[in-house]
Design brief:
Helix 27 packs antiparallel against helix 28. By secondary structure, the chain is an alpha/beta fold. The radius of gyration is 35 Å and the shape is elongated. It has 45 helices and 14 strands. About 60% of the residues lie in helices and about 5% in strands. It starts with 14 loop residues before the first strand and ends in a 14-residue tail after the last helix. The strands form 3 sheets. The protein has a 6-stranded parallel sheet, with helices on both faces. The protein has a 5-stranded parallel sheet with strand order 2-1-3-4-5. The chain has a 3-stranded antiparallel sheet with strand order 12-14-13.
Length: about 1000
Amino acid sequence: MPVSRKQVGATGAQTVTISFAGFNRAWAAWIANRLERRGVTVVQQRWNPPVEIPLEESLRDLTLARGRVLVVLSDWYFQLGPRSHDEWNRALRSEVAPDPDRFAAVCVTTSALPGATSAFGAADLTNVGAEEAERRLLVRLGLPTDPLPDADTSPGPRFPSDTPQVWGGVPRRNIRFTGREQLLTDAYRELQESGPGAGVVTLHGMSGVGKTQLAAEYVYRFGSEYDVVWWVPADRRALYRQKLAELAPELGLATGAEYGERLRAVRDSLRRGDPHAHWLLVLDGADEPDQIWDLVPTGPGHVLITSRNPEWSEHNSNLVEVPVYRRDESVAFIRRRAPRLTPAEADQLAEALEDLPLLLDQTAGWLNDSDLSVDEYIELLEGGIDQDVVKVSADFPLAFQTAWSILLNKLRDTVPESVDLLRLCSFFAPGSIPVRLLKDMPPGDLPEQVAGLMNDPLLWNKAIGQLRQYSVVRLESHESVEDAASSGESIYMHRMVHQIVGHDMSEENRQEFIDVVRRALAAADPGRPTDTRLWPAYAEITPHLKWADVLKSTDPAVQTLVLNCLRYMYLSGEYRAGIKLGERALAAWREMFGENHSRIWDLSYHYANVLRAVGDYAGTEAIERAAVEHLRAERGTEDLEHLRAATGLAADLRGLGRYDEALEISSWVLAGYHDLLGDQDSRTLNAQNNLAMTLRLLGRYAESLELNGRTLDARRQLLRQRHTWTLFSEIHYSTDLRLLGRYNEALSLQNQSVQVHRRVLGSDNPQTLRAEHNLALCHYRNGDRAKAANLFTRVLERCERVLGDSDPLTMMFAAGQSCFAREHGNIDQARAISEKVVSGYADMLGEEHPYAAGSRGNHALILRNVGERDHAHVLLEEALATMTRAVGENHPWTLGCAINASALRNLVGDPEAAAALTDSVITRAVEVLGRTHPLTLSARIAHAADLRGLRDRQKAEKIENEALEDLASTQGAQHVHTVSARSRNRPYWDFEPLTI
């Protein structure tokens, strides 16, 4: 290796111009940093010589640069154009060999290069570490190799041979990647210039333009600038959540095995930038922003998205549009893919294929191996194909349809098994396809033509290799090529390829292949959708149900899979997906089985659950009542399916505000389960839980507490501490404690339970949101307004993102946020939120529902605070009358409305009516809730104020003093309620919608 060259800058300023192929940008950045630290001026110049200019002339232009020219030698440097090795050898002998001191080089590849590159005297930087590579670079340029002072050893770009500390999911680098330099530069600039927390760029464009390949190339070119690079398929929300959660152990986060706990930890880690602030997350195929935008991490790192949907601009993302290739890029790519074609032929082919990268890739690959000329191929394209054979969406270019017919014929002639594998894959969802589910099946369950393929590693590798060669699929395993080919865990199929293959088969083959995929999915069913640890498996399975057309299967195992997936969607909060699946399943199964088959009742129960979750109580009542009546007539009352349907009906009645009817049904359902299964079966405990909810809605808080306490104890023993039902019981028990005024106990239990909810279910699960909302109310009632304010806001924002503005849970949280903002925040915000809640409950449940009445009563308090007393008075009196009709005069909700109404009666000049009302409330509250319940104490304090208004000071003082003593003994002398009452602030009551 030469060591006696003239030193850089020996005859002038120290300057080096680095000439590099864009593919090797990371090497150029690292070399520049190493030289600049030693005082060398560096100019980086990307090498991309125009094909129409002779190579000698392009090399000659390099000598116009200041200082020495350092060439980064790699396969890519010589492929640009592309040029043959003979052309390169002639040019190097002509321009480099005569002036060796003008050029220097480093070699970053082990591939064979043109022989004349020896003229560069290149330093070999392959297979060495960063320190040795730097030493070789400096020696080659004649620079001192002495260590720098400590002050000058600031970190720079990562050594290109060192991958980021965390690296996962990234597709292999496409060695045929061509052009797109400006797009890569634009994406890099947009991310680098974004502010903290705003580093989100979306590469958007039509199918087949190469968005995924562009994102992968971005990762390889700029990945050395990050500590974490994580690639996530984002075409389906559930799968995205699963893959993002898998980052937790890679970040070294101390979490349990539960999926929700890992997801929460990852998002929190990325947000804080701990342990890594320089992270890059790639969301591939995120075509539905509304499905996942709320899960896009914020923090100091960067997010790169690929999508066909430009609506990402509405979600704080900068857009970079990805068009089809420019013609020069098409020509360069075709010639790299098919070297036998001339530039003119490549241009001709690009014109015919409309410069669409995916189609160019697939066509040029096999055309290079074919004897067919470009003219003959284009003639085939222009001749069209039989549309009965290949039917493709009009969204795809006509040329794509024809080209695919030709390509499939080529595959049939070479490795026919590869076509059968493609056909099987077309019954999974496009994108990532878990072929391991097929390989895990017994050979006897597979069609004869693919059984050998799945069980013969050599044949499997041959078929996969052929498909990869023509860019029909890519391997999703991201280890070594050898490991990936043999493991075959999953492959990636582009949606355009997927659609073409799905239409190109006989009906006989279609039925055979689709049955195989259905059986594979059924075999992968974990069987326990209530177990959060198994949710990642369901997240992987559910996207494929539609494509395998599972609803037409008569296989009981496949039908059970559908029910389990529907149950998973309900429990995990994927309500919209669950409603779509349930609706389609009900129509399909009614046609298959008739109206009264047992499968229909199974399905109706799960479908009603997801409908009820979004507030369609009238719809679910019709479904469940039909089931109850039929099953009672057919099987009698002591039947488990009848009891299950009745359980759903009781829940519907609770949602409709018909609490007495719900109580009657819930009571005999519990008795029925107890007689049939005993008191320790999980179904009996569920019935006990439901009865307690009904009692709470009836205002019978003490009875609800006693029943929920027994349920919680039993679930902790029968199930596990972190089971979703055990955690749900903790919410219920804590809620009852709070409603009874036992605030410290409620807070202690709910605070601990929230932490477990976040770990087990994830921070965005509806049940976690319920737990956090109850914790906010516990803090509020206990006087910690700061913590309450933060939780109220966060919970409402997350629920709006995850479930939408009109979801029952969102409205429940909005009601709490509005009440808090009225007293301790922004009155205008409180009014705006309250107006939405009032109209939302009226639309969903009707004006006479207790939730509609209660929300109007809350709104009246806002009107009172802004000075609209008369309007507030009328609204409160109407709310009181409606609530009385709905739940009776002794219900705590009616008593609370009455306390508020009495205050407005005073304000409008009717103190006698106010005092009479609070006097009546005290009598009823003592009977229903007890003398020291917070609502009773509020009524006593309010009545004392009314008596003072009537100048009955002696009686007022007596009642007030007794109430203050009871407040101090139950809540403490310094509790906010006690302090407020002592200051003679008139108490008010907030209506709180409860879980049904």
